[in-house]
Specification:
2 copies of one chain form a homodimer. In chain A, 65% of the residues lie in helices and 6% in strands. Chain A is mainly alpha-helical and 161 residues long. In chain A, strands 1-3-2 form a 3-stranded antiparallel beta sheet. Chain A is elongated and about 70 Å long. The model of chain A has no long low-confidence stretch (mean pLDDT 93). Chain A binds a DNA duplex (30 and 30 nucleotides) through helix 4.
Amino acid sequence: MKDQELQNRLGAFVERVTMQMEGFGLPHYVAKTFSWLLVCDPPEQSAEDLMELTGASKGSMSTATRMLQQMHMIDKVRPSGERKYYWRIRSGMWVDLLKIRLSILEQFSKIADEGLELLGEEPAGRSARLKEMKDLYDFMSIEFPSVLDKWEKKPKESSDG
Amino acid sequence: MKDQELQNRLGAFVERVTMQMEGFGLPHYVAKTFSWLLVCDPPEQSAEDLMELTGASKGSMSTATRMLQQMHMIDKVRPSGERKYYWRIRSGMWVDLLKIRLSILEQFSKIADEGLELLGEEPAGRSARLKEMKDLYDFMSIEFPSVLDKWEKKPKESSDG
DNA sequence: TCGAAGATTCAGTATTGACTGAATGTTCAA
DNA sequence: TTGAACATTCAGTCAATACTGAATCTTCGA
C-alpha cells in the first residue's frame, strides 16, 4: 500500500475513532487530535503537525492538547536541543480512563444515600426506587474495580505474538 | 419534617441527581424530569405534574418523556378509566443502562481491530498503541458482562432490611 | 359523530459552546 | 538583553442545540 493511500485510509479510520471518543464527551477537534495520535508515525507529533493532520486552528490545538493532557491521555515531551514540544499517547491511558469512568459508580451510590436519608421518615415504599439504585451501584463499586485489579495483575503477553 | 420542607430539600437533591445524569449526555430537562420521578410521591406522575415539578414547557416535557421512554428508563401507564397518561421509573432500568454503556466496550475492541488491519504491513512498533487499546477492551468485554451476570443471579435481600 | 381533554409537533427564539486568529506571553540561543 | 521560534489567550463569530408555545393531532366518552 502506498503511503498516500495508507494515509487516506487512516483518515477514514480516524473519523470513526473520533466519533467514538465524542461519545465520551470530548469536543470534536479534541477527539480528532487524540485519534490521529493513536495511529500517526512517528508517535510524537508537534502542535504544527497536528494542526495539519486535523485542520484545526492554532487556538483549537492549544486547547485540545491541554485538555488531553489534563485528562492524562497524552504526554508532552521536548527532545533535548529542540525548541518544540511534541505530544504522544500516554502509555496506560486506557486503564486510567476506565478508572475515572468507574469512579462515577461510587458517586451514584453516595447520591442515592443522600436521597434515602431525606426520605427516612416517609413510608418505606417511597424509597424503593432509590434503594434499587443504591444496591446496584454498591455492588458494581466493588466488582468493577476488582476487574481492573485483575487486569493490572495479569501477566502481559510479549509483543511478538 | 413538614411536607413543604421535604419538598424543598428534595428539590436540592434533584438538582444533584440532574447534574449527574447530565454527565450521561441527557439534556437538562430530560435529566431533571427523570430525577423527580426517582423521588416523587406517588411514583406515577402525569405530564402536567412533571411540568410543575420541573418548570418545563409542554413541548419540552413531551420530548423528555419520549426520550426517557426510548431509553427504557421510564414507563408510560394509563389507569383504566382515565384519559391521562402517567410516567414512572422503570423497574430494573439501572442494570439496562449499565448494559448499554458496557456494550460500548466491544465497539472499542472492534475499532482497534480495523486500525490494526490497516497497519498490518507497517513496522510492528507502530501498532503498539492500538494493540494496547484492543487488549484491554477485549478483556473488559468479557469481564464486565460476567459481573452483570453475577448481579442478576444474586439473590435479592427482602425489603424489610 | 361530536367535542373536550390531553398529547404532539415544529417554526421560531434563546442559549450554549466550538472555533478562529490576532495579540500577547514565554522560552532560550546567541 | 535581544529577538526569533513557539505557545497561549481570549474577544468575536459561527453553528448546534435546547426550549417555548401556538397550532395541530389524537383519543375516547357521550
